[in-house]
Design goal:
By secondary structure, this protein is of the alpha/beta class. The protein folds into 3 domains: 56 residues, no CATH class; 34 residues, no CATH class; 159 residues, Dimethylsulfoxide Reductase, domain 2 (3-Layer(aba) Sandwich), CATH 3.40.228. It is built from 15 helices and 6 strands. The chain has a 4-stranded parallel β-sheet. The two termini are 30 Å apart.
């Protein structure tokens, strides 16, 4: 599968959109302690590196002396050049530590919710662990479910350049003719790519857990859940089953219940559960579904 971003990677060096000199808001230069209102409407003035570093040092020193190190947030989270040497976040935090400390953060934007819950569920952070290899998936899976993901878009990029090695496996998956279930409120490029091979299910935004619960309830009531596995390898299933059946809150999480929340027809939820149970099914989930309030619930329930 060709990567459309390859042709633009080299252009980034000389693009007119690249900021090549330090730029400071005009109102900030006029009065650093009281910049003009109208954020986003100000003009920018080019300054020398010496002047830019002097401005940064003066304000950094002022804030630290007035409010202490906790008032300094060393963020700078984001993209960077290859390797750690040119990683802005590492360099900034090193400098701030040498200057007297700072307020930081834990986790990251990519999987902030999932990486907190997963150690309690599977014993490791999971999202950055070794995943099931593609050759095994292609050889052994009978059905592949893509939940809340658009890999034909996201697999084009890496930290510092284009990265398309995963795209070839999706091409092989398409050629295999295996059924693909794409669960996504948006009809993405990935769904279009698989075309007739894919069944698109579009739940209402943010209702993934309700859909998962409806599937789980169907599997349980039809006796298609693996009781031996659950008893031997998991803890807490009896309590979860009480919630699933509604014994603990008088609300069974049935396909009917899930249909009202998700907008996915009851019959389709039941059919999806039965398809998963009747075939060796690979569940793949994107990171996007956990980037919201209660986002950890999605990956927790998927497991």
């Amino acid at each position: 599968i060709p990567n459309s971003l390859q042709s633009t990677a080299a252009d980034q060096v000389h693009t007119t959109a690249r900021i090549q000199h330090p730029m400071v808001r005009k109102s900030y230069l006029d009065n650093p302690l009281q910049p003009a209102k109208g954020r986003g409407e100000d003009t920018y003035v080019q300054v020398s590196w010496e002047q830019a570093l002097k401005l940064i040092h003066e304000q950094h020193d002022r804030i630290r002396k007035a409010n202490g190190p906790s008032a300094i947030f060393a963020g700078s989270y984001g993209w960077r050049s290859s390797g750690v040497l040119h990683k802005a976040q590492t360099l900034l935090q090193r400098y701030m530590n040498l200057a007297g400390g700072y307020s930081g953060h834990s986790g990251d934007y990519s999987t902030g919710a999932a990486q907190v819950i997963m150690p309690h569920v599977v014993g490791s952070v999971e999202v950055y662990e070794q995943q099931t290899s593609w050759p095994l998936i292609l050889e052994n899976s009978q059905v592949v479910v893509l939940w809340g993901m658009n890999p034909l878009n996201t697999l084009k990029i890496a930290w510092s350049s284009t990265d398309e090695q995963g795209l070839e496996y999706f091409h092989q998956l398409k050629k295999s003719g295996k059924p693909v279930i794409a669960i996504d409120p948006i009809r993405s490029e990935t769904i279009e790519f698989f075309d007739d091979n894919a069944t698109w299910i579009a739940p209402n935004m943010g209702t993934d857990v309700a859909l998962m619960l409806g599937i789980a309830h169907t599997l349980m009531t039809q006796g298609k859940h693996d009781k031996v596995f659950l008893e031997k390898y998991t803890t807490g299933y009896p309590q979860f089953e009480e919630y699933l059946t509604g014994k603990s809150d008088n609300t069974p999480k049935s396909a009917v219940w899930a249909a009202e929340i998700t907008g996915v027809p009851e019959a389709q939820i039941v059919k999806l559960a039965e398809l998963m149970a009747a075939n060796r099914t690979m569940l793949m989930a994107g990171w996007g579904i956990q980037r919201q309030q209660y986002g950890e619930q999605k990956h927790w329930m998927l497991v």
